[in-house]
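Sequence in, structure out. Go.
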Amino acid sequence: MDIERFFDAELAQHEEVAAATGAELAAPFRRLVDIAVASIKADGKLLFFGNGGSAADAQHLATELTVRYVDNRTAIAAIALTTDTSALSAIGNDLGFEYLFARQIEALGRAGDVAIGISTSGRSANVKLALRQAQDMGLTAAALTGSGGGELVGLADPLLMVPSTVTARIQEMHIMLGQMLCGAVEIELGLAEDPHS
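Output:
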């Protein structure tokens, strides 16, 4: 294996996907920021969820909001539905893995909240069911996914589809977009300065 060639190729692919993401996702990102800010201002909350690496992203982003992203400030209401091992194991065992997030949204979600599913493929059954549950309850059903959107097209709105079919690149863009969301929400709520102004 040529490690230097591998290193250069991975970076080049990352940069290509980042550029395409910038070109294609500005409008849905703006909509997600606006919806999230409106929800928080109305005493709503953001609920993040996904599987595997996406579960880690959900936890990461909820933490950035409840604690801080850039500056010490008022807490922002956000929950990762991927962290309560008792609830996750009980739901998985008693109801089925596909209900992992839908059941928690049923218990914790309120009309006006924002449910943000994360699925690189757009085919995760438990993410789809959770977004349907969110819609049924009057939450905004939003999602981050990869090229084509899988089965989230027509279900999540806004839907941020990273223009790539490579899982690693999609996941890299998801955490970047998620952190950008955290930063933009802080600024739009007047809790942080815009470092780019």
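Check: The chain is about 50% helix and 10% strand. The CA atoms of residues 21 and 162 lie 6 Å apart.
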